[in-house]
Amino acid sequence: MTIMRNTFLGLDPLDVRQAEVVVVPVPYEATITYGGGTRQGPGAIISASQQVELWDEEDNWDPSSVVKVATVLEITPDAGGPGAMLEKIKRVVKPWIQAGKILITLGGEHSITRGLVESYLTKYPDLTVVVWDAHADLRDKYDHSPLSHACANRRVWELGRPVTILGVRSYCREEYDFFRVAPRLTIFPMKDLRTGAGWQKAIEHLQAIRGPVYLSIDVDALDPAVMPGTGTPEPGGLTYPQMLELVRTVCRRGPVVGMDVVELAPIPGQRRGEFTAARLIYRCLGYIVGEQRGGSQ
């Protein structure tokens, strides 16, 4: 595939008013605590996506020929800090959400998820959030900031809706004490997902979720052998097929109204991370629209 356009998958540019799905780049990086580079993630994913084959070999159809996808200009970082950035994200995305668009947001660091979920709650008050993350991200503060990417899932949980986190294999004592007792919060650590019983429990939990769902995928949930391009890699993560099975399980049980993919930090000279992320996003898109329309076309 050689066609190069500055759009996701190299698709023809489309007015957002005509789109069903809107790809939103957010190259925001302000609270990263280890390796940097997530501000380059959205651009790298869009570039890599132009090399993704559009024919879905799993279900034998072309989702891009069925769903109308628009790629919008990036939401640029706000110099006012993390709080101002979240407000900027909300101002931009709320009109699209109210119009019923499915947003696929490309980060940037995980802290952006709070602004996205808060915006979705204005249209879907019964929303459930499902997160894939190597880290619990449930600290109340990190480096004296409550809006650090290390606090991303805590800030989302505080919005009052059920949150499920899968693939976790790194957390501190504070987070452990918190998630053992926090209501509306379900954790599936990676050590449990490695067992047959633990995996089946996670599948059954996802199948039982009712109502609209928002997906948040921190790419470090994948094993570093699969996803080396992230600032905070943790060994022992999900395989690519495992990730797809979990996502598809969520999509089969009801509507997925939006998602984000965050924390990709491209490695110079490598393309594995951004291409894997791009292909994962396209597969997620196929699951979302395919299941909602009664299966692949």
Your description of this structure?
The structure is a single chain. This protein has 297 residues and is of the alpha/beta class. It has one domain: Ureohydrolase domain (Arginase, Chain A), CATH 3.40.800.10. The chain has helices at 41-49, 82-98, 113-121, 152-157, 173-181, 190-193, 196-207, 240-252, 272-292; strands at 21-26, 69-71, 102-107, 128-132, 163-168, 185-189, 213-218, 256-262. The chain has an eight-stranded parallel β-sheet with strand order 2-1-3-8-7-4-5-6, with helices on both faces. Helix 1 (41-49) packs across helix 9, helix 2 (82-98) runs parallel beside helix 3 (113-121) and helix 8 (240-252) runs parallel beside helix 9 (272-292). The protein is globular, with a radius of gyration of 17 Å. It starts with 20 loop residues before the first strand and ends in a 5-residue tail after the last helix.
Question: How would you concisely characterize the structure shown here?
Answer:
The chain contains 9 helices and 8 strands. It is of the alpha/beta class and 297 residues long. The chain has one domain (20-292): Arginase, Chain A (3-Layer(aba) Sandwich).
